[in-house]
Design a protein that fits this description.
Layout lengths: L7 E7 L2 E6 L10 E10 L15 E8 L5 E2 L2 E3 L1 H5 L12 H15 L7 E5 L5 H8 L3 E5 L3 H9 L4 E2 L5 H11 L2 E7 L8 H11 E12 L1 H6 L12 E2 L2 H10 L2 E9 L5 E8 L9 H11 L5 H27 L4 E4 L3 H9 L8 E4 L16 E3 L10 E4 L5 H7 L1 H5 L3 E4 L5 E2 L1
Parallel strand pairs: 7-8, 7-10, 8-9, 10-11, 15-16, 15-18, 16-17, 18-19
Antiparallel strand pairs: 1-2, 2-6, 3-4, 4-5, 5-12, 11-14, 13-14, 19-20
Helix pairs in contact: 2-3, 5-6
The structure holds zinc ion.
Zinc ion binds next to loops.
């Protein structure tokens, strides 16, 4: 993980947080890097504080490698700093348990994985994915760098190593349990700085007859719904199938299947096998790559156009919020997560918000990163006179509007900033 810090143009130390700027593409080494989308500087997006203290902000930008098409953050904050305060727990994300149950069942059936096989989940969080594999008779092992979530998994009987996944951790698992038949990495692959070393360690852990399954956000789909707030400092890579296929190939893996899935505004599931295996590559791989070319994912203009679209939405939303505030009315933000911090900073929403509410109890009683806006339970809305609720967690708008529909009858108005600005 340290290797790429040699690649830096500049390292800044600020309150023990370090960041660097990569002049070269982290995947192919090319210097042909172009700025694709520049957002407002933000603090670490998920550092909601118990006690408000000053938090530095860092550049947040997307860059495109004109050589290999890799879309990525060129400014990288040291991963140890980012993960120290990790609060996300996948078990509380609506709908993921059902998604993981179906996922585990499909992989085991489709790839004839025998009962009792070792399944290793990397970035296993609270063990939601492990639990799905365990329910269908597999031996499971997790690896999770965040201490509190790893402990939660172990307490629930889902064996988890509390560490970053490295070559050493792969060796440790092999020595104790042998090689893995399936290795999974869900919503973690894009958050790895040195993804090539990580993938090589996966290959070491993987049985020659095994498969590696990755699920990650799919930015062509996410861009399509104007979802720019999935860009944050812990999210280093914005993958296309083409880039992933080449990345796997560098690590002696062959991409044999790519499937679009629904979580997080658009995701992709990829199945790979060691390259020397008999190859059967699904048509989906080349089909998705040709779609990516058609959508202009290799063209810098596509991202500049995206930036302009976002700017128009911001202007319209701010005009509306200014008008509400000039009448002295309250505006309450709904949502407190990585993505809401990006949205609040890039759209410069903080001056308009009286407080935030969220359903995740880990966030209650905290203050938002940088602006230190207090976060309360969503029940707090019911103690208020009718007000405007700005749905920062707009990806969950359906769930939020259904749960709180009685507020609309009481005269509350819900403002949806994206995919298009509208009022309910
Ligand atoms: Zn490149």
């Amino acid at each position: 993980m340290k290797k790429h810090f040699q690649n830096q143009r500049k390292v800044t130390s600020f309150q023990t947080l370090q960041y660097r700027y990569d002049q070269n593409c982290r995947l192919c080494g090319s210097e042909r890097i172009s700025s694709a989308l520049k957002l407002q500087d933000t603090p670490l997006e998920d550092q909601f504080l118990k006690v408000p203290t000053f938090q530095p902000t860092f550049p947040l930008e997307l860059a495109l490698c004109e050589n290999c098409g890799y879309l990525h953050l060129p400014y990288i904050i040291s991963p140890e700093a980012s993960y120290s305060d990790y609060m996300y727990v996948s078990g509380v994300t609506v709908g993921l348990r059902n998604h993981y149950d179906a996922y585990a069942e499909e992989i085991v059936t489709n790839y004839n994985i025998p009962k009792g096989s070792l399944i290793v989940d990397l970035g296993s969080n609270d063990g939601s994915m492990l639990a799905s594999f365990k329910r269908i008779g597999m031996q499971v092992q997790g690896v999770e760098p965040a201490t509190a979530t790893a402990k939660l998994a172990n307490d629930n009987g889902l064996q988890t190593i509390n560490d970053f996944f490295t070559d050493n951790v792969a060796t440790q698992i092999i020595q104790e349990y042998g090689m893995a038949q399936v290795v999974t990495a869900n919503y973690v692959y894009a958050n790895i700085d040195d993804v090539i070393s990580f993938t090589k360690a996966v290959v070491k852990l993987l049985s020659p007859s095994g498969i590696f399954v990755v699920e990650t956000g799919y930015h062509p789909e996410q861009m399509n719904i104007n979802m720019f707030d999935y860009i944050y400092h812990e999210h280093f890579s914005y993958f296309t199938v083409e880039v992933l296929k080449n990345l796997f190939s560098k690590c002696s893996l062959e991409l044999i299947r790519a499937t679009k899935t629904t979580p997080k505004g658009g995701s992709i599931q990829l199945v790979c096998q060691p390259s020397e295996k008999q190859k059967t590559v699904a048509d989906s791989v080349e089909k998705l790559i040709s779609d990516e070319y058609r959508l202009g994912m290799r063209n810098i203009e596509t991202y500049h156009h995206f930036g302009k679209k976002i700017q128009n939405i911001k202007n319209n939303l701010l005009d509306f919020l200014k008008n509400i505030k000039s009448k002295g009315e309250k505006i309450i933000g709904f949502g407190a997560s990585h993505s809401t911090t990006t949205l609040m900073y890039h759209f410069e929403l903080a001056p308009y918000l009286d407080f935030l509410v969220d359903d995740n109890q880990l966030k209650h009683g905290t203050f938002s990163p940088g602006h230190h806006i207090p976060v309360h339970p969503s029940s707090r809305l019911y103690e208020e006179n009718p007000a405007h609720v700005l749905v920062l967690a707009w990806q969950h708008q359906k769930t939020i509007l259904e749960k709180h529909s009685s507020l609309i009858k009481k005269g509350f108005k819900f403002i949806l900033p994206l995919p298009e600005f509208r009022i309910v």
